[in-house]
Amino acid sequence: MAENLGYAGAINAMAQPLLKVAGWDAIWIVNPDTEPSPTALAELRDHSTRRARGMVGSCIISAERPEVVRTRGLAWSNLSARTLAVDFHTPRDVEPNEDDLELRLGAPSGASIYVTRSLLGQIGLPDESYFLFFEDLDWGLRAKRLGALGYAHRSVVLHRGGTTIGTNRYRGGLSPLAVYLEIRNRILFVRAHHPRWLPWTILMQFPHVAAYGTSGGLSLIKPAIQGLIAGVKGESGRPDRMLQAHAAWLGSPPQ
Hints:
This protein is an alpha+beta fold. The protein has 2 domains: 6-159, Spore Coat Polysaccharide Biosynthesis Protein SpsA, Chain A (Alpha-Beta Complex); 167-250, no CATH class. Helices cover 44% and strands 15% of the residues. The strands form 2 sheets. A 5-stranded mixed beta sheet has the order 1-6-3-7-2. Helix 6 (176-193) runs antiparallel to helix 7 (198-216). It is globular, with a radius of gyration of 18 Å. 39% of the residues are buried.
């Protein structure tokens, strides 16, 4: 059975040997549960060249509502201690002001990221300590600090979401593994990028834990608490015990 490397681990397994090879100037990372438009890559490349941006994201849409934007990228809110989908459900046919959007943008959505080789040399590869969730936000913030972050509105990518880890099977689109990693990695991310906000972020996880308990009962409140404890303790990397539980959950009837 192939080893589960996580999001960043899979990217790095491809990119590390590629960095030793000449003749290429950028890579495009797309989730397996996406359907890019025919011109999606060309638009990313054009934007990267025109705006001198080393990391560029796409306009992410859903199959259910393709006429609106699912996200133009990600932004972190210290006050609410959560990740925001930039311009969620705004009309897709409205093209944003590029300068304004880049100010609001913290990272591209991990569903579609175009990165130049020169930028990789400056910011490095994505951080594998998250395993799943928050790698894209962490990576994007590194690019933004160099003024290298952009968004190509005409690069349209349909993202089904949740199919790679099975969260689309569960009511509310959540799985125990997703809940655990979302809370654990939220704390890890803040510790790395906004340490002054760490006590507030930890405090803000208690309403999240309660909300998961309301939506999923014990099946979600337990991994939520486990994720909170793991984040506070600074645990990172692949959570093998949770992955084993996730494999058993995937083998159960869909809910």
